[in-house]
Amino acid sequence: MILCLIADCGLVAPLQGMWVVQTLISTFLAILFIQSGLDKVLDWKGNLEWLTGHFSKSFLDGTVPLLLATLTLVEIAAGLVSAVGAIEALVYKSFCWAFLGTLLSGISLVMLFFGQRIAKDYAGAGGLVPYFILVIIDLYFLA
After folding, report:
1. Residue 66 C-alpha from the chain's centroid
2. Can you count the helices (H) and strands (E) in the chain?
3. So where are the chain's domains?
4. pTM of the model as a whole
5. Alpha-carbon torsion 58, 121, 35, 106, what sign?
6. Integer distance in angstroms from the first to the last C-alpha of the chain?
7. pLDDT of 6-55, one tens digit each?
């Protein structure tokens, strides 16, 4: 609604307002995944201990360090590429990096969802659904 009011004032062309939405979504994803990835890096031992216990009764038991490293890299990449995408959308009103950041974010969420389901943490898996819906809607509009 606010975007419509701004567009009606002539500040933003109605069909070009998508860059505002994309800037906000990319910024949101950048904050989400940079923070999550950095948390894993800065508290590697704590995360590893918790996840080792979390997956102790699953077939992923012996692979937790590798999976944590992979997830951490994908999350940091998703966050950094989304940050570049936010800047690109804001400055150039272009969405190439935003698309890549959103795609990496989706991959990261699928990885997290898979792990939560395997660990039978259904509440944790359910908490990821709103983020995933945002990513899918964003990808739809960017494609």
Report:
1. 20
2. 6, 0
3. 21-142
4. 0.87
5. positive
6. 24
7. 444 444 444 467 889 999 999 999 999 999 999 999 999 999 999 999 99
